[in-house]
Amino acid sequence: MNLADKSTEKIWQGTAVSSGVAHAVVHVLKDHFDEPDEVPISADEVESDLARWHAALEVTRVEIEAVQQIMDEQGSSEADIFEAHLLILHDNSILKQVEKTVREKLICVDAVYYRLMCKHMDALRGLADSYLRERFLDIKDVTHRVMRHLRGEMLQHPMFDDQVIIIAHDLTPSDTVQLDRSKVLGFALETGSANSHAAIIARSLALPAVVRLHNICDELHSGDPVLLDGDEGLLILNPSPATLAKYRSREEQSDAREDALQITRHEPAITSDGFKVDVCANAEFIEEMDAIRDSGAEQVGLFRTEFLHLEDPDGSEDWLAECYTKAVKAMAPGEIIFRTLDIGGDKVDPHASGEPEPNPFLGWRGIRVSLGRQDLFRKQLRALLRAACHGRAGIMFPMVCGVEEVRAARALLDQCASELMAEGLKIPEDIQIGAMIEIPSAAMSADLIAAEVDFLSLGTNDLIQYTLAVDRLNERVADLYQPTHIAVLRLIQMTVAAGKKAGIRVCICGEMAADIELTPLLVGLGLSELSVASSQVARIKHAVRKLNAAECSRLAVEIMQMSSAPEILAKSRSMAEAIYPELFA
Ligand code: PEP
Ligand code: MG
After folding, report:
1. If I label 13, which of 400, 492, 493, 536 is the partner at 20 to 30 A Cα–Cα?
2. Of the listed 169, 197, 309, 542, which one is catalytic?
3. What is the pTM (predicted TM-score) of this model?
4. 509 catalytic residue (yes or no)
5. Residue 217 catalytic?
6. 461 lines ligand 1 (CB under 6 A)
7. Exactly one of 108, 507, 509, 552 is catalytic; which is it?
8. Which residues contact 48 (CB under 8 A, 6 or more apart)?
């Protein structure tokens, strides 16, 4: 931004994925492969800066060797590539040159290392020779890995003193856990979708978020003042006094509406004809428990444990047990349903998963990782069982594709429980065990799964993506991501029927549960448990109280005869708008 633009208001339109408004300066998180700034350092800082770089090289070495080992075990000829990567990583001339430049020029190692590697890449870039082109890609790959770890190291330390709005190309779940969340007021991202975990977290933390702000990282600089509108999907640079005044008055009106909703938030959600719906909250972080209790949620219907795991992938069983216990005690007497690790997909833990996969959402994810890495799984199960001794904790398994995985997971859980009892622990007998239904095969065998568990929980974020073959993160196919596609609704209906027949609870913990346009349809399909971001609890309870379950059932019967997703959405929405127009204001 040049100086002449300093006070000029400029507006970008993106896609709103989490509501609310924030006014603050931005902090731009450049893509890890972007050019790092040439930050000067003092002579005293040289050693610690170089130590940080050596640590990044070491983590990269471990990472490359792990991948190499997997390739070796699979007899893949690709293993040689990683040998070349290790040679680049340990290249003596590069190591010496970087150290020398940092010491002499007193510039941070990130910039020095990056520039030197770029020089090597430039020498090879665009050459026709296929061997040399491969070398270019090797250097790029190694540089990419090291820069990522350097950036990770940096992110662990707060980079901003004041509260900021984060601007980034994308935020992976592991990026998110490293941010100092107490300082973040909102997210504005170049890419992403309503169902990406960055958006889900923003909603959980009740922070405004806007995605699909193309090239915004190049347009803004850290320190620029902006207003982020998570309702209309706007990002406004240098908001004028008139704009700020308009937003202030809008905020006052919405605060008044919100206050009215909040009055009844602790009362149960029962339809006008007596059908009770348990409205629960989804959580990702222990620190959310107070806000959740205050939101009126009856329990935590989904605790995504992978975020805690990403904070410290090597954390001990004792540490995990302590964290889970803290959450259980904070939520008492309410229950927390802990979902066992759902690593994979977009929630990548390089230590657990090894080499990036071509189709991560169809790869090693959720219960597949847990059953494959029993050391990790057992550590988590033992920690959860220990926490369950201090309050009410349920356990559910993600990404199961059929009953056999559920049986295998339960067998391990039983083993862990026996061990702990032999160690003298008194494990409660009534711990609720559940399975997530988020793969079509699981929905189609929900009757078999229901026979093995105490409850089912519909993970519609994934159920939609896997049923319709639409990547939940891919903006190109976002229009095809249709919660009201009849195939999705049939799978939900099948799951509810299986739960009913087995006499067990069925919950929805996907984002669909928080969509007030769909509440009539979900109630009509017989769902009696909805788990949503805590900021949405009061709204959903209000919507349920206004509905009549018998009318909703008739609506669902009609809808299940329809075939067009937009028409189904319009039908449910029109009932919702007619019955609780105040929520659409
Ligand atoms: C889901 O898939 O609906 C779900 C709740 O899990 P996640 O969004 O973490 O994949
Ligand atoms: Mg899921």
Report:
1. 536
2. 197
3. 0.77
4. yes
5. no
6. yes
7. 509
8. none
